[in-house]
Write a structure and sequence with these properties.
The protein is of the alpha/beta class. The chain is 47% helix and 12% strand. The protein folds into three domains: 151 residues, Rossmann fold; 172 residues, Rossmann fold (3-Layer(aba) Sandwich); 103 residues, Orthogonal Bundle (Arc Repressor Mutant, subunit A). The strands form four sheets. The protein has a five-stranded parallel β-sheet with strand order 2-1-3-4-5, sandwiched between helices. Helix 8 packs parallel to helix 9 and helix 19 crosses helix 20.
Length: 471
């Protein structure tokens, strides 16, 4: 049985645009005509990863709260609120989903109003299926180009300190020290717990240093102690059993650039003496070689231990400690930079969604609260893994966090996040919005973006709170 909508719109065809449709897209169709909803569902559901339908704005809003959509196809004439009114509301709330508007009424003013409210395209009923498929294809292609541009900008930012995410006072201090020390030749020691992003800081210092050679990372704890000297300095043919040919070491690979020695506390004491000599004399001798080779390499080291304690207990050379500890950058754990979690989560959601080929995940206020009350023993690395899992599942699952409430950061532990239970909802909202504004260094546009509201809404609330305080 063919519906009236299908007779009007026409049958599917194998147009090139149809074949090129992005198959991992998620689409929401909103139309009060059952025939049109069913026709579009059958025409598009096999060509996309997720397709949902709704007969009203209220139903669409309920669906949209539990799923993220790359594209919405919305009829202008809907029961209750019109499609244009809803579109304007979505724009006010800064919802970043492309919308194709369709209508059976050739009203130029309505079309202009829809486009002004952010509609990506406007289709007049009756239409051929090829028209709708082409419009969908154009929207998804524009979205893909925007994502690629975002990735390109991110790649360019990665060469500067912009690649370090966070605006907390602790991270601003990290960036400030990195900027000051980068142009110098001083050795840098980066301290911090596992997973805090020590290598990212080291890469940022290298990127800002002006050195034209490569950044060469090596984990001292992952190389067998008897092979570490050969890995760093190289060896000649026949220098030891298995050395069938000469090989340059990592110092030579890093010539003109930066050698990053991660987990420096794992380096054996005999090797520490040789490293100290290489840094001070700017020369290395390959294993089995008779002469030394000059090097132009900056050394940055990192550790998740306190080197001063290692030195006091005889596990780290005092002279090497003072040679490496010219400038120390301490990267804070995530639990000490809770205000950075929304930005980190959004960053990982956007970047990982591109790698995984899934839609980015919008985080609700409750999601942010859940993220900010977990202590993150694995720090940024653990947060990234949780966001990756959430993207694959389509939501932030409660079982992402091992342990129970006993491990969570509570108000009794001094967390600024959790207000007293006696507070009203309005007091909780005020507390949260002011805290985010403070985290954004007073930038109202940035604070509004993080909160998921318009700047106008934020300013209206600030004005109301100011009147309350004055009264």
């Amino acid at each position: 049985m063919v519906s009236a909508a299908e007779k009007v719109a026409g049958r599917p065809s194998a147009a090139p645009a149809d074949r090129a449709l992005v198959h991992n897209a998620s689409i929401l169709i909103v139309d009060d005509e059952p025939g049109m909803r069913n026709f579009l569902r059958r025409a598009l559901e096999k060509r996309c990863a997720l397709l949902e339908v709704a007969d009203s704005v209220e139903t669409a809003e309920a669906i949209r709260q539990r799923c993220h959509f790359d594209l919405m196809i919305v009829d202008i004439r809907l029961p209750g609120r019109s499609g244009v009114e809803w579109l304007c509301e979505l724009r006010e709330r800064e919802v970043r989903t492309d919308v194709i508007v369709m209508t059976a009424y050739a009203d130029l003013d309505t079309a202009i109003a829809a486009l002004r409210c952010g509609a990506a395209d406007f289709i007049l009923k009756p239409f051929r299926l090829e028209q709708m498929v082409s419009a969908v294809q154009r929207c998804l292609e524009r979205r893909q180009i925007a994502r690629e541009n975002f990735l390109l900008r991110r790649e360019m930012r990665a060469r500067t300190l912009d690649g370090i995410i966070g605006n907390s006072s602790a991270m601003r201090n990290v960036c400030s020290i990195a900027r000051r020390v980068a142009p110098t030749s001083a050795t840098v020691l980066v301290e911090g717990e596992t997973g805090t992003g020590k290598e990212l800081v080291a890469r940022a210092v290298h990127a800002l240093s002006g050195r034209t050679g490569p950044f060469v990372p090596v984990n001292c704890g992952s190389i067998a102690p008897d092979l570490l000297e050969s890995e760093l300095f190289g060896h000649t043919k026949g220098a030891f059993t298995g050395a069938h040919q000469s090989r340059e070491g990592l110092f030579m690979y890093a010539q003109g650039g930066t050698l990053f020695l991660d987990e420096i506390a794992e380096m054996p004491l005999p090797m520490q003496a040789k490293l100290l000599r290489a840094i001070e004399e700017k020369q290395i001798r390959a294993v089995g070689a008779e002469r030394e080779m000059p090097i132009d390499v900056r050394v940055i080291t990192a550790t998740n231990r306190k080197l001063s304690t290692e030195m006091e207990q005889g596990r780290f050379r005092e002279d090497l400690y003072f040679r490496l500890n010219v400038v120390t950058i301490t990267v804070p754990p995530v639990r000490e930079r809770l205000d950075d979690i929304p930005a980190l989560a959004e960053y990982f959601s956007n970047t990982l969604s591109q790698e995984l080929g899934v839609p980015a995940l919008p985080f609700t206020h409750d999601d942010v609260v859940q993220l900010q009350t977990y202590p993150w023993p694995g720090n940024v690395r653990e947060l990234k893994n949780v966001i990756e899992r959430s993207l694959l599942l389509g939501k932030l699952p409660s079982d992402c966090f091992p342990g129970d409430g006993a491990r969570r950061i509570s108000a009794s532990e001094g967390s600024p996040l959790q207000p007293p239970l006696a507070w009203t909802l309005a007091e909780v909202e005020k507390h949260h919005m002011l805290r985010i504004l403070d985290a954004a260094a007073g930038n109202r546009s940035e604070a509004a973006r993080r909160l998921g509201v318009s700047r106008k809404t934020l300013e209206r609330k600030l004005k109301a709170w100011s009147r309350q305080d004055a009264g």
